[in-house]
């Protein structure tokens, strides 16, 4: 009788396969553990930024559905503006973005390569700047949006004065805890929300006294503004307005234009004001032409006043309309250049020194700029030097209240 070849039973083959797979897993885990927890191994793991964002915000931001039926032009506007918020192309053929006259908002076209760095125990010591930041007392957070300070419109929820008299311009303003007898400087950094890296840099690196202004066309505004408020920054909403010699169409469908009727502009203002909550003031983006037209801007300022929202103007042209309406507002003292690179840092430093001089002469000064990495770095370093110069860092709302008291 011929010998039969010995074969492993099927169950044994499966068992061997599982044993081999398990051994490989254990070996890989040991290698990873050794690399992660030894000084010689990798100290950081890079993850796509989209992952923690998805965990923090499980639902993608959308324009809030109309709480009441919208008909006619309002329904059409709601559809168009909702598409605008998503960066889609509308029926008029415009790709709706939030550009300036430079490449301010096109620095970073692809955010997919952003990374969040997670430090593993056993890594090298953090840099001195990180250690110093960790020793800084946490700033007092700005309150979250209060439902009592909101009311519904066909285009979303917008601010209102609460039945008990509370208003956004006070409720969401950062308290000023500095020396009231010292010269005060306020800084506003605008154009935030459009570039994820620069937005995070501004929130994390700038002192909490710096007020942060967000572009209405940015995505994930609730996420970013909440992060800013938690870090102690008061926040502002930007209103795109018609400027001289500028392409009005490039400002998007929600732009406030002198060629539109007050009703058309106020409808767009409803959408702009509904983009996120928790802001104490609005400010212009561009807007020299619109601000100089009192008949055009007065209804906008009146609506902001009735909503309990302050206004900060950097054109110098809205003062008359503001006084006639009676809104609490302030005018920017100096515009600080938005430095696109290291070669423009000197311009930023010169304007910051000029702002100091204005504060020393007049007691208060307010500067405004737009978000670039180099500009933020310069402002952060400069702000740390103000204490030794006897100048107080103040949120923009403190300057606003000082202006209101002086009138």
UniProtKB/TrEMBL annotation:
Tree of life domain: Bacteria
Family annotation (CDD domains): CE4_DAC2
Gene Ontology terms describing biological process: carbohydrate metabolic process
Transmembrane segments: none
Pfam families, per the entry: Polysacc_deac_2 (PF04748)
Protein name in UniProt: Divergent polysaccharide deacetylase family protein
């Amino acid at each position: 009788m011929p010998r039969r070849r010995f074969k492993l039973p099927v169950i044994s083959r499966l068992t061997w396969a599982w044993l081999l797979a398990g051994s490989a897993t254990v070996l890989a885990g040991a290698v990873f553990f050794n690399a992660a927890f030894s000084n010689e191994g990798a100290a950081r793991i890079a993850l796509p930024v989209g992952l923690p964002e998805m965990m923090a915000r499980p639902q993608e931001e959308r324009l809030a559905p109309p709480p009441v039926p919208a008909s006619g032009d309002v329904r059409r506007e709601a559809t168009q503006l909702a598409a605008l918020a998503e960066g889609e192309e509308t029926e008029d053929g415009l790709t709706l973005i939030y550009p300036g006259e430079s490449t301010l908002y096109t620095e970073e076209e692809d955010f997919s390569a952003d990374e969040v760095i997670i430090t593993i125990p056993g890594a090298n010591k953090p840099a001195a700047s990180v250690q110093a930041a960790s020793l800084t007392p946490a700033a007092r957070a700005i309150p979250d949006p209060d439902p009592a300070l909101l009311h519904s419109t066909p285009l979303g929820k917008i601010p209102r004065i609460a039945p008990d008299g509370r208003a956004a311009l006070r409720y969401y303003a950062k308290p000023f805890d500095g020396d009231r007898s010292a010269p005060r400087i306020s800084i506003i950094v605008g154009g935030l929300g459009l570039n994820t890296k620069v937005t995070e840099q501004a929130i994390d690196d700038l002192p909490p006294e710096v007020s942060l202004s967000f572009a209405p066309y940015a995505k994930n505004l609730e996420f970013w503004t909440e992060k800013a408020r938690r870090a102690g920054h008061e926040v502002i909403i930007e209103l795109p307005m018609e400027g001289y010699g500028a392409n009005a169409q490039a400002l998007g469908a929600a732009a406030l234009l002198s060629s539109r009727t007050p009703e058309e502009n106020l409808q767009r203002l409803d959408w702009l004001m509904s983009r996120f909550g928790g802001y104490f003031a609005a400010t212009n983006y561009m807007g020299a032409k619109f601000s100089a037209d009192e008949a055009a801007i007065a209804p906008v300022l009146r609506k902001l006043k009735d909503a309990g929202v302050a206004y900060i103007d950097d054109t110098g042209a809205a003062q008359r309309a503001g006084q006639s309406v009676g809104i609490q507002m302030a005018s920017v003292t100096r515009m600080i250049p938005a430095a696109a690179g290291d070669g423009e840092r000197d311009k930023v430093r010169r304007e910051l020194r000029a702002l100091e001089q204005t504060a020393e002469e007049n007691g208060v000064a307010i500067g405004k700029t737009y978000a670039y990495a180099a500009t933020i770095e310069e402002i952060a370093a400069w702000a740390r030097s103000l204490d030794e110069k006897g100048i107080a860092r103040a949120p923009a709302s403190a300057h606003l209240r000082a202006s209101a008291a002086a009138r």
